[in-house]
Fold this protein.
Amino acid sequence: MSLRHKFYTQLEPTAWPHQGLSVTIRIVCAFILVSAIVAILDTESTIAVPLTSTFLIVEWIITAAFLTEYVARLWITAENPKYNDGWAGRFRYARSPMAIIDLLALAPSLLTLGGSEAYLLRLLRLIRILRLARLGPFSQAMDHVRKAFTSRRHELGLSVCLALLLLLASSILLYLVEGRLQPEAFGSIPRAMWWSVTTLTTVGYGDVYPITLLGRIFAAMTAISGIGLIAMPTGILAAAFSEAMRHDGSDGKE
């Protein structure tokens, strides 16, 4: 077994011959979690200011580790049958969604390690948490989610269209009924949409509400419709996710 293939089995979860995650992947997971914790704590000034130097050193170490991992993944790409055609394969791998996530996770740190106050760029380091989706069981779960969305895309599209129609209809009705009495809240259809969104999603902030009898009747109908609106895509995705897991299970048995 060549050195490159050894690294490939360590860094590629699908190539790991044993159950669970390799030692290298476990270390990568630990770095990802530490990076996320540091990025979160960095937003609290009472913690970040006294530990500025410590956070900077930790970020240097984490960035160096992720940069090394990214280069190593480009190197071991030739061991993957999908990308084993030399530099062309490496270039295709670099354009894959997961490789782009790796690069995006590195970019903010490389741009801000010099002490830059680019707050939003520093906060984008949290994107590293998405890298967990490519590791072992998480990768398989993400594949199930992708298959669920793909297989039910038409049903989900229909539920989105119904939601938009219901949102528009409720906004128009409340605008017609409550617009003159509450111009700040319902004086236009876009203003009434805020109330419709909070009602249909069953959030119900209570900052805006109808005061007329007819308006309250329409509000009750909207609230009841919102329950079905939330349940529809949830049921569709639950059934599709279960079907995807059963399908993979039957393939494994075969």
Observations:
- The radius of gyration is 25 Å.
- The mean pLDDT is 81.
- The longest helix spans residues 213-253.
- DSSP finds twelve helices and no strands in the chain.
